[in-house]
Amino acid sequence: MDSNLWGHSADSGYIEGQDLIGYAVEARDGRIGKVDRHSVDVDAAYLVVDTGPWIFGKQVLLPAGTVERIDHEEKVVYVNRSKDEIKGAPEFVDEHGAPDSNHFQLLGGYYGPIV
Fold first, then answer.
1. Which one, of 20, 29, 6, 5, lies nearest residue 83 by Cα?
2. C-alpha distances in angstroms, 69 versus 10, 91, 106?
3. Distance in angstroms (rounded) separating the CA atoms of residues 15 and 28
């Protein structure tokens, strides 16, 4: 598995150019929401997940490296983190349309290297 937290791993099933918006997002222990938007920028790829009522409508940013696999037929993105890990992540506040470098560093420290 690729060790880059901010890039899709080669075996995740990500297809270049594939629109993931609206896909359900499944943590290790259950559904957490749906993809609101995503970025595929080199070394800065991520998903913004709308958690809906699960954690009071909070939006979270998940580095692309947390994507374990993508089921395009069922439109589900599986991530290799638990609901609690995602719930405890620093909140993503969408003030400028994209995260800044400080938020990337904060999340990189929180999620740590891909295992």
1. 29
2. 10, 24, 24
3. 22
Angular region, 15: left φ>0, alpha ψ -120 to 50, beta rest = beta
CA distances, 33 to each of 10, 26, 85, 92, 95 (Å): 24, 7, 14, 15, 21
- The per-residue pLDDT string of the chain (115 residues; one tens digit each, 9 = 90 and over) reads 345 888 888 899 999 888 999 999 999 999 999 999 898 887 788 898 988 776 566 788 899 999 999 999 999 999 999 998 888 887 776 655 666 667 667 777 777 765 4
Q: Are 32 and 51 in contact (CB under 8 A)?
A: yes
Hey, what are 113's tokens? 């290297």
